[in-house]
Design goal:
alpha/beta, 7-stranded parallel sheet, 5-stranded antiparallel sheet, 11 helices, disordered N terminus
Length: 360
Amino acid sequence: MIDFPQTGFSGNDLAKIPVTVITGFLGSGKTTLIRHLMTNPQGRRLAVLVNEFGTLGVDGDILKSCADENCPAENILELANGCICCTVADDFIPTVEKLMALPNRPDHILIETSGLALPKPLLKAFDWPSIRSRITVDGVITVADAEAVAAGRFAPDLEAVDAQRRADESLDHETPLAEVFEDQLSCADIVLLSKADLVDTAGLERARATIAHEAPRPLPIVPMRDGVVDPQIVLGLNAAAENDLAARPSHHDGHDDHEHDDFDSVVIDLPEIADPEALADAIRTLAREQQILRVKGYVAVSGKPMRMLVQAVGERVRTQYDRPWGAQPRQTRLVVIAEHDHVDPGAIRAVLTGRTTAKV
């Protein structure tokens, strides 16, 4: 492990606590990155604030299971109701104040935004009177899925978009997903291309070129696999991003706030399942037929003492058994996220129950 020089973080109440904002689209790998940083703090005492879209705190639960002396469980806080950039006064500021008031003050705070959060309103919050003299944005890290970007998702070819606009008046504006993605790039100090092992060299170069085209200024673009990146690359940037807002343009500049009515989520409770692969097939069907963006949660598998964690992005489904159920009720709970018009709880439940019970 590389020793990281401590430059006034610990033991100096006058020093501002640096904060790294980690943003990125749904399922890009933000939580995996934070887990890596938690296990490689390089002498820092960390605290983590995780914001999720929907009420089922999967990501926060995952991070708390990785707590250790460098980042104990009490240093990991969740905001699971509402987008972090929309609830600054009510939720974000009090939570940050709570982290700063911990008996053992953290040396560095990591903030994982929801996949739908716009980073710029969050950066503006660091000018809030009660915290601006005690905290600074060390840097904004945007995590982008290399395979998705290489395939052209959320960054369409301009000529193709123009052709679609001429053919269909309904496409005379950017999609909500594209705006979120572009705003996250616009605020970034570094872009991490996650899951770089899933694309070949040509795909990686396409992803790089797409990001370079969409970003308002040249940005370091670093490939990453399994959330592993040298912490020295992403921590200690000293960007003071809250003082550099003009260089971080947003589609929502000039607006006092924004809404996420374009997106919605629903929590689906199911009984124990017998066949995890049947569940994975059902999730892939939801992505393909109902345009579901993201599924995550915990699954009770018949005959298995461990609970199964499910993380799905589109048709890519990953599962793992993470820990015993213990005293926790054995129940399958999944949070399903999509654009608003595509969230039909009855239709979603029908696909999940139809596929998972057929083989029981």
